[in-house]
Amino acid sequence: MTLPETGRVTLPETDSGARGVPRIAIVTGATGAIGSATARRLSGAGWTVALVGRGADRVRAAAEGLGPSARGFVADATDSGAVDAAFGQIVDSMGPPSGLVHAVGSTLLKPAHVISDAEFDEVLDVNLRSAFYALRAFVRAVPRGSAASIVFFSTAATRIGLMNHEAISAAKGGVDGLVAAASATYASRAIRVNAVAPGLVRSNLTRRLTDNESSLQASEAMHPLGRIGDPDDVAGLAAFLLTDDAGWITGQVIAVDGGLSGIKLPPAAGNHMRSVSR
Prior knowledge:
By secondary structure, this protein is an alpha/beta fold. It has a single domain (24-277), classed as Rossmann fold, CATH 3.40.50. It is built from nine helices and seven strands; from the N terminus they run E-H-E-H-E-H-E-H-E-H-E-H-H-H-E-H. The chain is globular. The N and C termini lie far apart (50 Å).
């Protein structure tokens, strides 16, 4: 389903495209915290942005908020037919895309023995199958001979063992594998595939943790930089990976996690270093 056109614009020459031919980026999960932050960055850098999400009103509002260079499209990212239809509408109404940011995701923090089959299926649908559907539809939409870039989202939990992350780690581990395979498959077509692996980021999905002061403090203490992430911390790298400046980067899962997955500080040392730095 496509929303009424909010307008189109011919851009002057920018870093994101040749004169009069602005590059088109698709952002799925565009009404979420990270998706919307990435869309804002891309729009501000001169991209024409196709916003894809489930709620018509929210998608329309997001597109209107970005101005005439954005359009909204409604689709359930876990429905392969709906994804194919939305990407087809984008090509028909806006032109072929050269960037995809797949910012669809969920979280489920429970130990494996209490997770039902239905819960696990939902985690796989939202986090892994949706990524495969978006990849397939995007590659089909990119003309042969045109370079393009895809950005998925993984998690720091695929790199380190975190309690109660079995379901989400399994699903996002699948995304990591998808990045590795797809980057190899499509390198000959100059389609780059990467992922960003955040730590805990403030969003509606994480409010149960971040709205609880004791949980928030515990989460901040797990991140060596002493704070949890904001959506813009992650969106900056996602937007960069679509640009020509990242043209020799593919097949990578890059951590943006405040040091969570790569640094281990003794508690006393960590507290001391944070107190000195502040």
